[in-house]
Amino acid sequence: MNKRGPIALGAKGFLKRIHHSAWAWDLFQGPVYNCLIFKAAADYFDALIRLTGRGAPARILDVGSGAVVMSLRQTQAHPEATVVGIDYALMQVRAAKRLKKKKQIHNCSFQQGNAMALPFAEAAFDRVVSVNSIKHWPDPVRGLSEIRRVLCPRGQAFISEADRSASPEALLAFSENYRAWYIWDALMRWCLKNVVFGKSYTAAELKTISAQAGFRDAIVAGPPGPFFILVLTK
Ligand SMILES: C[S@@+](CC[C@H](N)C(=O)[O-])C[C@H]1O[C@@H](n2cnc3c(N)ncnc32)[C@H](O)[C@@H]1O
Question: Which of 73, 74, 48, 47 is nearest to 60 (CA)?
Answer without folding.
Answer: 74
